[in-house]
Hints:
81% of the residues lie in helices and 0% in strands. It is built from 6 helices and no strands.
Amino acid sequence: MRFSLVPREERFFDMFDESAKVVLKGARQFHDLLEDYTDVETKTRAIKAVELEGDHQTHRIIEALNRSFVTPIDREDIHALTSGLDDILDYTEAIAIRLQLFKIKEITPEMKQFGELILKASEQIAEAVHNLRRLDHLWSFCKEIKRLENLGDDISRKAISRLFEDGMDPIELIKLKEIYGRLESTMDRCEDIANIIETIVVKNG
């Protein structure tokens, strides 16, 4: 195994960029699943394939990190950003799988709203990561991601409140409550990325 003795900034930032693009690709497919809830099995397989692509990118970055003595940003921040991006893909895949397992027949308006938020947050993440090497305009991207996450909290509260108001079958209520919880957690992971990027800016700006 060959070790790198000098910073290879372009390598790390290019790999971050690729990972963020995969996250955006996954968010688009997840959004499509929620907007057009047909051919669910095929769409879920496509989401799984993107998650595997994300895993591959994660392994590439971790391997590069293990071979490098000097890194363009702190090692813990590289690891946190890489893991955080992968988490978003893991969460959307898990939700898609549960929609199938739980035999969810119809997507609720709140689920569609979450799909839109996750897509918008992923777009902001992709832009922020693309600009990471220059530390340019990153605060505005992070602020928007946090705004979207707050909207997700509001949607989740209203959605869960409505479940209890509608006199729904208890089993169906439990299923939907778990889906909403995981959707909210996906937005939390997006906010985590914003926090990691802010940390990188403070350390390196």
